[in-house]
Amino acid sequence: MRYCYGPGGTARKLGSRSPCLYAVGAFLVIYTPVMSSYRKCAYCGSVGQLTREHVFSRFFYSRDAKAGYEKVISPVNRHGKEKFVQSELTIADVCSSCNSGFLSHLDQYGAKLYDEFFDVIPKPGDRIKFRYEFDVLARWLLKLAYNAGRMQKEKWLKWPDALGILAEATPYMRAETRPPRNLRL
Ligand SMILES: [Zn+2]
User: Which H helix or E strand runs over 81?
Assistant: First the structure.
């Protein structure tokens, strides 16, 4: 499937021969999927071919499907209006190195916690001893929040600094620095 990317990161699906045209001022600019994908990775800043990252880790969907839940309905923002689509939310601003590297490792950790703790309904009186690695869990939660914020920028305008703060925390998410100051779980 080819996608056409317009100003502000809007995307629409293209047929095999459909042109993708956006008028910018007096000019008509033709965006092709290849040209549009040469942007900066949201996590490491490298410029190159970008890939699609699940906004919410893919294992959430696979676990739901396995449990027999019906197809996922996701909210998306198109031209300032919220619509609901029957698809998994993805965002195409992550390089393949980050996507298949640390982001995938964080999702694997999230899936492990999910299976061990989050997908279990305790009975009254059960005692749960929640064991976790602080930094890995914090990094996974931060990347989920950062993904959601980039996906729904319009909604996040209520918190003007939030996306910037999360962007500054990407070196920590990549496990290259110490946690941001005042980080609490
Ligand atoms: Zn990257």
Answer: strand 81-85
